Amino acid sequence: MIRAVSLTLAAVLCLAASAPESRLEQFFRLRKEAGAAAQANDIARAETLLEQALALYPTSPGALIRLARVEIAADKPAEAVAHLDAYARLGLTWDIAGDKALSTLAARPDFTPVAARLAANAASVGTLTVAADMPRTGPIFEGLVWRDDHWLVSSVSEKTIYRIDRNGAATVFLKGDAETGGVFGMALDGKVLWAAEAAGPDIPGSGGAARTALLRIDAATGALLARYPVEGAPGPVQLGDVVVAPDGTVYASASVGAAIYRLKPGAQALEVALASNEMGSPQGMVVCPGDALLIADYSTGLHRLDLKTGRLEPVGGMRVAMAGTDGLFFAGHRYAMRGARPHPMAVVATQNGVSPARVIRLRISADCRQIESMAVVAANHPALDDLTLGAAMPAGVAVIGRGGWAGYGGDGKALADARPETGQILTFPYPDD
């Protein structure tokens, strides 16, 4: 996971400067120019630029809020209400009373149903079971894997992996070395556990020169078997999440560097599977039937990568606010469908970049080109604060709540006024059809 520090235009511009302006780069440019126009009191221009930005990403929560504020300044309250209604229909919340510009809408009759919808979105959803508390209070806990009868939980700030049994007893699992950095996302492949590793001055608990790698770990003993570093990249790179394909190819997303790396079976080095200026910060991934990869980009939502052709395209279908998605994983469930068509699959996403932080279930077409439906599984629970990643289990799915990132700043240093909370593994049953 990379928080807001990596979700800036700088993260996108680290790609090749000679490439044509992508949709994402255009979006960032329009948003920046709109901010400058608003500062110069050119409200009409700011409105036009934000409308163009929103046309590129119609479910962008930030663009909807910014445009509504500008429309208030342009004395267009009805238009502002319409855009806030679109925001509310995405299932999101916003502190209207605490927003100086938008609070002026509270007395308008046409805002009443929007206010009701925002209030409904703030209601608690889902029943979560606390399966285990983390072994310590304060560190950052990021990745989660279920293996046989226990969890494996990665820690960024402690540069290790813990084993937590059904009774909540925790032991240090990873037998790392002097080079081991913060451990992020993980994926299990039989007797091998794969994990993304990163270290450097901005990584909590780490120091020295920035470096990142894919780790191969014995899933039974925790022994570090091999390290595959990212080398020769044109700019900063940080691996964040991992998934394994049926053929044994391991894919790792670079949340900094906007790329997907892969390690083919028997290979001794990582290679670039995709470097795209259409993504700002790729996070979780799901392997799709037919040689494709479903990728969650923190800036723009879901994309489908054709692993044969290298073509990247946005996922269509139902409009869902997918920006701010961190974890993405197959829930181990396929939906029933009449006829011979392949069954859609259930995919779970953890979203910590929207309000409220939430766990959602997506019904994804078998070819990974369409979102067929979305349901909020859990939201507005205190335990979901600082939500990180999750994993499938035999009887349901699990996520990490109170992961610990809130206790650290963008420079990787612990905040002096932080109030550490105990992280938890939270579980819920498989979704119904």
Spell out the blueprint of helices and strands.
Layout: H1 9-13, H2 23-39, H3 43-56, H4 61-73, H5 77-88, H6 112-121, E1 129-137, E2 141-147, E3 150-155, E4 160-165, E5 170-172, E6 182-189, E7 192-199, E8 211-218, E9 224-229, E10 238-244, E11 250-256, E12 259-263, E13 271-275, E14 282-288, E15 292-297, E16 301-306, E17 312-314, E18 316-317, E19 325-334, E20 345-351, E21 358-364, E22 370-379, E23 390-393, E24 396-401, E25 422-429
Parallel strand pairs: 18-22
Antiparallel strand pairs: 1-25, 2-3, 3-4, 4-5, 6-7, 7-8, 8-9, 10-11, 11-12, 12-13, 14-15, 15-16, 16-17, 19-20, 20-21, 21-22, 23-24, 24-25
Question: Keywords for this structure?
Answer:
16% helix, four-stranded antiparallel sheet, Serine Threonine Protein Phosphatase 5, Tetratricopeptide repeat, single chain, 37% strand, 6 helices, disordered N terminus, 433 residues, Neuraminidase, globular, five-stranded mixed sheet, alpha+beta
Task: Outline the structure in words.
- The structure is a single chain.
- This protein has 433 residues and is of the alpha+beta class.
- It folds into 2 domains: 4-121, Alpha Horseshoe (Serine Threonine Protein Phosphatase 5, Tetratricopeptide repeat); 129-429, Neuraminidase, CATH 2.120.10.
- The protein has 6 helices and 25 strands.
- The chain has helices spanning 9-13, 23-39, 43-56, 61-73, 77-88, 112-121, and strands at 129-137, 141-147, 150-155, 160-165, 170-172, 182-189, 192-199, 211-218, 224-229, 238-244, 250-256, 259-263, 271-275, 282-288, 292-297, 301-306, 312-314, 316-317, 325-334, 345-351, 358-364, 370-379, 390-393, 396-401, 422-429.
- The strands form 6 sheets. A 5-stranded mixed sheet has the order 18-22-21-20-19, with no helix packed on it.
- The two termini are 30 Å apart.
